[in-house]
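Researcher: I'd like a candidate sequence for this fold, 113 residues long. If you have to choose between options at a position, lean toward the conservative one.
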């Protein structure tokens, strides 16, 4: 975990994909969290998220492929208390995958088209 700053984001390789966890921490208390992923560029995604100005801590989970990124995002989503988690819905599912924790097979964005 590190501070969620522009200088930290600049150090993220532009070709990294994977999952991430944003947290708002005050003192030693986690006030809220958001689990996400990027299948194309965590660097770009973090720049977008930083502009929102909500979170002050970032943990990155680089992955080798989209499956690994999706599975890590699902793990984070299912392991964080509902009282802290700000995600409004289950992680989006890449085509051909299902959540290894709840076996969700909601249509992916590509399949909804």
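Model: Candidate sequence:
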């Amino acid at each position: 975990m590190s501070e969620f700053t522009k200088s930290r984001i600049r150090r993220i390789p532009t070709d990294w994909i994977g999952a991430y966890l944003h947290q708002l921490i005050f003192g030693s208390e986690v006030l809220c969290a958001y689990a996400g992923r990027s299948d194309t560029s965590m660097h770009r995604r973090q720049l977008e998220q930083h502009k929102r100005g909500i979170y002050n801590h970032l943990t990155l989970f680089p992955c080798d492929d989209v499956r690994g990124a999706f599975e890590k995002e699902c793990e984070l989503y299912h392991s964080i208390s509902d009282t802290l988690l700000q995600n409004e819905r289950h992680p989006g599912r890449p085509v051909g995958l299902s959540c290894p924790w709840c076996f969700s097979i909601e249509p992916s964005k590509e399949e909804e088209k």
